[in-house]
Amino acid sequence: MNKDPTTLVRRINDSAEFNRWCGFEVVSCEPGAVELAMPWRKEVGQYSGFLHAGVVGALIDTACGFAAATLVGPRLLAAHFSVNCLRPASGQRFVARARVVKPGKQQVFTCCELFAIENGVEKLVAVGETLLTVLPTEA
Amino acid sequence: MNKDPTTLVRRINDSAEFNRWCGFEVVSCEPGAVELAMPWRKEVGQYSGFLHAGVVGALIDTACGFAAATLVGPRLLAAHFSVNCLRPASGQRFVARARVVKPGKQQVFTCCELFAIENGVEKLVAVGETLLTVLPTEA
Amino acid sequence: MNKDPTTLVRRINDSAEFNRWCGFEVVSCEPGAVELAMPWRKEVGQYSGFLHAGVVGALIDTACGFAAATLVGPRLLAAHFSVNCLRPASGQRFVARARVVKPGKQQVFTCCELFAIENGVEKLVAVGETLLTVLPTEA
Amino acid sequence: MNKDPTTLVRRINDSAEFNRWCGFEVVSCEPGAVELAMPWRKEVGQYSGFLHAGVVGALIDTACGFAAATLVGPRLLAAHFSVNCLRPASGQRFVARARVVKPGKQQVFTCCELFAIENGVEKLVAVGETLLTVLPTEA
Hints:
The structure is a homotetramer. The first copy, chain A, has one domain (5-134): Thiol Ester Dehydrase, Chain A, CATH 3.10.129. Helices cover 27% and strands 42% of the residues of chain A. Chain A is built from 3 helices and 6 strands; from the N terminus they run ααββαββββ. The first copy, chain A, has a 6-stranded antiparallel beta sheet with strand order 1-2-4-5-6-3. In chain A, helix 1 runs antiparallel to helix 3 (53-72). Chains in contact: A-B, A-C, A-D, B-C, B-D, C-D.
C-alpha cells in the first residue's frame, strides 16, 4: 500500500470533486510528507478578497490527510483539525507542506504550514494540524 | 452597526465569492446567533462522496464569523478555528448553527454545530469553534 | 463496567496523585456526564493570583475523561484537548461540567464548561474539549 | 521591557505559586524562545503513574506564555491552548521547548514541544500551542 505513495495520493486527489474544483495539485510526496499547491482564483476568496478561511482549512486538512496516507494507506478519517490564521492569506499561489508528527495503529498526528506565494516570495500565512483515525480493516 | 444584523450578514455572504460558489444561504440571524445552510452538490465531496472536511470547516468558520459580526460588526478576522468530525457527513442539505460564547472588545469566542439533513431528519455530524480578533478601528 | 459509574470514577480520581493534591472532588456522575469540583487554594494560582491556565486545563481534561469513562470504561487516553479561556478565573470554588458529545468504539468526543463560584454566584470562565482514544482490550 | 528576558521570565515563574509547587525551572530564555523543565514527582501523576495530562498542558501553556513574554512583556493572557498527547508521558524529567510562531500587537501565536527524559534519552511526548492576547496598556 505504501510502495508508491505519490500514485496513491494523486489518485485520491483526482477522485475528490472538491479538490479538483479548487485546483489542488500534489506537488511532491514522500513517506510521511506531502506538498500540496493551489493557484489563486477569485472563487476561493472571502468578502475582502483574501483566501477564504475555509479553503485555508481545506488545504491544511487535505495535505495532512495525504501525508498520513503515505504511511498508513487511504483508510483514514479526520477526527479533529485546527487552523491558526497568522496573516491575511493573499497571493498568486498557495502551498501547504504537511508532515506526520506521530504515526500509530489507531491514529495519526500530523501538522502543516501554509505559504502564500507572491512574485516568487513565500510568506507563512497559516499553520494547522489534523488528527486522523485509522479505520479498522474489514474482515 | 448591530441594528439590522440580517442585512449585514447577508451582504457579507453575498460579497464572498467562495460562499456564493458553495451556495451558502443565511437562513436566520439574530444578535449572537446565525443559521447558515448549504445544499449538497457533488462538487463539495471528498473522494468517497461525503462532504469534504474542508467544506465542513468552511461552513463552521463562516457561521461563527457571522454570529460574531451580529454583535461587533464586520471588522473581524478568524485567528483560530477547530473542527471535530463526529460522523461522515452525508446528506441532501447541511445546516450550521453558530452562536457567540463570549463577546469582547479584542476577541470573540464562538461555537457551532453542523447538521446533515437527509429526508427531513437532522443528524449532528460535526462541532467546531472559532476565535475571532476584532480589528482596531482606523483613526 | 458501566454499572456503577460513580464508583468507577471516584476510584480513578482517588488513585491519581495529582487529582488528590489539587483537591478534585467528583460531585456527581451519570452515564455520559460528570461534575468535578475543586476549592481555590493559593497553590493553584498563576503569577497574578488567578487560577493557573494549566489547572483550568487539568480540570477540563479530567472531567472530560471521567465523562467518557462512564460510557466506555477506564481504558482511555486523551489524544487531544483544547481550552478557551473566556475570563480570568477567580473564585472560591471551581466546577467543571463535562459531557460526552459522541461516544464510539475507537474514540470518544467530549466537551466541558468550567465555572468559578464566588459568594454563591457561578460565572463561566472557560470551555474546552477532549478527544479520547479507546485502548484496545488486551487479548 | 525585552532587555533582559531571562530575568523577567524567572521573576514571573517565581511569583506563580503553581509553578513553584510543580517545580518548573526556566532553563534558558532568548527572544521568542524558552526552555522550561520539571523533575518527575509522584504528585504530578495520573492514575496509572504517567504525567497527568493537566500537567502536560500546564508545562506547554506556561512555556508558550514565557516565550511570548520575551517579545511583548508580561501583559498577556492565554485565550486558547491545545495539546496533542503523542505518547504516555513517562520520565525522570520533562522539558518544554516553546517558541513564538508569529508575534503581533493584539495577539501572539506560539507552539511547544514537550520531551520526557529517561536515562539521558529524550522522547517527544506531546506538542501543543497557545494563542495569547496582549492586554492593552492602561492609560
